[in-house]
Automatic annotation (TrEMBL):
The keyword Transmembrane helix applies. This is SpdD-like protein. The chain crosses the membrane at residues 55-74, 80-98. Residues 28-38 have a biased composition (Pro residues). Keywords: Membrane, Transmembrane, Transmembrane helix. Residues 1-44 are annotated as: Disordered.
Amino acid sequence: MLRPKIPVNDQPTGETIPLTGTALDHQPQPPTPAPTPVAPAASARPAVQLTPGSLALLVGGGTAAVLVVGAVLVSMLLAVAITAGSLAVTALVVRSLMNDHASGSKRF
């Protein structure tokens, strides 16, 4: 009832080769056993030791990175706001010029 019909493939040579069998004709494979867990090998590198000086350096570097990224994002937002404002002023000027032109008044 719900068996899909496999279409016949048209080859570039024009020769039609019908497909035989369905996707369900294969024999099921026996399940493979699960791999046994292996204990991780001991690392040859020592663990990272943080001294108070290196910890302060990390905190200072992280703070500086956050401030720089924040300043860049704020400046991008400001650039978008300035562009939007100048575009709005330009639109008002163009609309005013078009209204004057449509009404027929001559100021020039």
